[in-house]
Amino acid sequence: MTQASLPLQKPATIRPRGAVFNWIGVIPFFLFAIAFLFLPSSSLFIGSFQNSEGGFTFDNILGLSQPKILDSYWLSIRVSAVTAIGGGIFGFLLAYAVSIGGLPAWVRSSITTFSGVASNFAGVPLAYAFVAVLGRVGFVTGILKDIFNIDIYEAGFNLYSFWGLSLTYMYFQFPLMVLVMAPALDGLKREWREACENLGATSFEYWRYVAMPILLPSLLGTMILLFGNAFGAYATALALTGGTLNLVTIQIGAQIRGDVLHNPGLGYALAFGMVVIMAISIAAYTWLQRRTERWLR
Amino acid sequence: MAYLELENVRKEFNNSVAVENFNLKVERGEFVSFLGPSGCGKTTTLRMIAGFELPTSGAITINGVDMTDTPPNKRNVGMVFQAYALFPNMTVADNIGFGLKIAKRPADEIKKRVKEMLDLIHLPVKGDSYPYQLSGGQQQRVALARALAFQPQVLLLDEPLSALDAKIRVELRSEIRRIQQQLGITTIYVTHDQEEALSISDRIVVMSAGKMEQVGTPFEIYNFPQTSFTASFVGQLNLLPVTVSDAEGRRCAFNGRALAVGQPIRFANGASVRLALRPEELNLGGASGDSQRNELTGAVESVNFLGSVVRIRVDVGGATISIDLFNERQLVLPKAGEQVTVNFPAESCWVME
Asked: ipTM of this model?
């Protein structure tokens, strides 16, 4: 009896052809990250442990403990924290108003567009805009003085001080909060509120037990992002205060540019310290975001 | 006095009527389903009972108390949502105990009740899990337990199974009915799935375009539909264009052939109407001279095997009718194009506009 037999064939392997091309697509990003993130960070790290002759030293790192340097870190942390918290709260309230506050749709699109522009408006133009508006002879300062007889500088306000700088930073801080928090607020499901009410909860209890715990990781995460955003700002502070405020970024500029305080090694160490603080911020932000994403899967 | 009563309830949204003239009395412990297509007003009515929507006019009373304007958090009504609506930041146990926590019950009482509920829904070891760690069916069980934990007066379910796959749906609907009967809780169930409504309800309210079409037991709704909408929406229905030839004698004519009708005919002689009959009432073969059975002949259009049922479509000249036969191994099926005779009892058909 003849039996027909099928030839034994190795099962065809399904090869994800597209995968190779997908990786080709992200190569420019990796090249960019290596050239402008990894290499400069490595250079910072190495420079932090090098003396002017290129030899190994701990002097730069030890130099970070100088009172003036510690003051600059403390000032940068205070400015960043104040603007992160202030911008965070104000931005959150604004995001709430446009997302679930029942305002007309055009208000949301207007505020979102403004936020997109304002969150990227920083540096020298922002500083000069604030000088033109709230400087000693600024437009609003003049109006308040001439029409309402209120001299804000007499009352203690100073644009070129800690609070003046913080106010200026708020201009790009709160729009960033709006941009990040509005989608998070959109993610609150109507059914959660209804389920809460149905189970006897008041609006306050809904926010206390459900909405806030869900939003909190995003809220804190975004505030950390704002903290990092302010911590790394340089041009705005320099243009506004002319270096009178001893921020870390201004210190780094002074050490590297070197008019008076030329010590590139210390500048590298200062920058390295900043990178560490920023890395901690990013790690905390990522951890908090993942926590929310896990819940909302 | 009815336990839950809706009296002349009407709801308008921006001058468009979503629900009108809705009157219903539900007895304590009864399971009533609102059945209808999307947009018929069934969910709006349910949301008015829950308090999420206020009626434009009319009254809603629960256990003799007027709840029409009572806010949702004061109604003591449990609700299960289509998309579960579990709180993602809380464990299963915390979700179930939430209503009791809000009511400020002692912690040990909450713990005991949560355990009872977990046992009731057959998930005794899932108390520490988060919603994202559960399947859709498990999440909906938890949602049910959460809605029942604080012992509500009425349980409302808004299409609770529509996000689940077919097998889980069938399992869970039996589970819902078992729990409802065990607890004896008055329940309103919204669905667009007729099989679901027919299988678990004590009574069904068929709705269309914001109005109640018919209220009755599943048996009444299926076998004695009072409106053409109910007849066509619930179950499969054949509609033959016929002319009333003798209203008193309950006779119609189709393609010159006289057909006996079991139910009284409310139309005048000569009126063009439709003869309605369920596919499962039809058989292949002649009537064998039985005067109480009608006979039609035609060509087989298609034969579809549906598992337990075989559906045969026959062109009887100007109309196509479906015949559902129970699947048996010895069943001899006709082929497409074959001429066949179809018979059906006069009692099984009725006349509609």
From this structure: 0.84
